[in-house]
């Protein structure tokens, strides 16, 4: 029998200890790589795929209103908003009931109506001097994404379109402003150029300034229509604008998209929705 204190026994013990250390280190490295890989996969899963480039415009066939910028605002004196004073008399006492009641008459999905009505209610409390009506938000929502239905998307009960709505790359091509990537593709899935995202088509830099969690799910998401509608309302009401005046309304809408043609289309849609709602509820 070999002596335990012999040189050969000592070298055998050292070799055994070394193998054990290497095995432990290998296990640690594997666990780390698996964990890091899992985090990478989760991060990648959270980044949307960029949509194919398209030149389709949701509001291409909308007829613009014949109105001069700054001269007037749509919807003056029509009490057609949610939770109006005579709501109890009409049997429509909640935001959801209001949205479901009006949706068929105005041709807007009830889920989108809920978001637009909520945005008006929040701004009544946060900035009553803005006097913003849901019909202006709805007009923008119709132009930007057909109320979350652009490209065949379906607006879910959670307020998110499926598939997500992601616009063309802002790459400086004819008629397109160039905006290099600012969000690492987190919102728009494009790491080279920014794209407008969601039902109200926010670019990442604007969303960073105005994004808000209106749905209460703990995340400000431009794809979620409650969040996007309230962010739109806050954007329009910024700088102390009064959206019930001609100057205030046009300043707000043209800041959203600096095009008179765009403003006239939003105006026409706001008037149209107001007339439909008034005739249905009045």
From TrEMBL:
Protein name in UniProt: Transglycosylase SLT domain-containing protein
One biological process term in Gene Ontology: peptidoglycan catabolic process
Keywords recorded for this protein, A-Z: Membrane, Transmembrane, Transmembrane helix
GO molecular function, one term: peptidoglycan lytic transglycosylase activity
Domain called Transglycosylase SLT: residue spans: 196-240
InterPro entries according to UniProt: Lysozyme-like_dom_sf (IPR023346), MltB-like (IPR043426), SLT_2 (IPR031304)
Domain of life according to the entry: Bacteria
Any Pfam family hit: SLT_2
UniProt xrefs under CDD domains: Slt35-like (cd13399)
Transmembrane segments: 21-43
């Amino acid at each position: 029998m070999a002596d335990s204190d012999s040189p050969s026994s000592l070298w055998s013990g050292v070799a055994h200890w070394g193998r054990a250390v290497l095995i432990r280190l290998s296990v640690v490295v594997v666990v780390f790589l698996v964990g890091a890989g899992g985090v990478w996969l989760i991060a990648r899963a959270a980044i949307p795929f960029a949509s194919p480039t398209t030149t389709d415009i949701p509001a291409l066939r909308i007829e613009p209103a014949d109105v001069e910028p700054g001269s007037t605002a749509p919807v003056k004196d029509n009490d057609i908003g949610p939770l109006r004073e005579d709501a109890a008399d009409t049997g429509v006492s909640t935001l959801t009931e209001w949205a479901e009641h009006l949706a068929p008459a105005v041709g807007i999905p009830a889920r989108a109506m809920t978001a637009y009505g909520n945005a008006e209610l929040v701004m009544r409390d946060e900035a009553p001097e803005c006097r913003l009506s849901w019909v202006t938000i709805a007009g923008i929502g119709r132009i930007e994404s057909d109320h979350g239905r652009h490209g065949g998307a379906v607006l879910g009960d959670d307020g998110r379109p499926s598939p997500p709505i992601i616009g063309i790359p802002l790459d400086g091509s004819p008629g397109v402003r160039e905006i290099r990537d600012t969000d690492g593709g987190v919102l728009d899935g494009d790491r080279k150029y920014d794209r407008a995202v969601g039902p109200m088509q926010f670019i990442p830099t604007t969303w960073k300034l105005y994004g808000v969690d209106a749905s209460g799910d703990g995340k400000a998401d431009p794809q979620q229509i409650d969040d996007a509608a309230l962010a739109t309302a806050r954007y329009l009401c910024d700088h102390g604008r009064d959206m019930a005046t001609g100057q205030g309304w046009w300043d707000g809408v043209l800041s959203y998209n600096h095009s008179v043609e765009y403003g006239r289309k939003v105006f026409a849609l706001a008037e149209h929705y107001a007339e439909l709602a008034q005739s249905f509820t009045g």
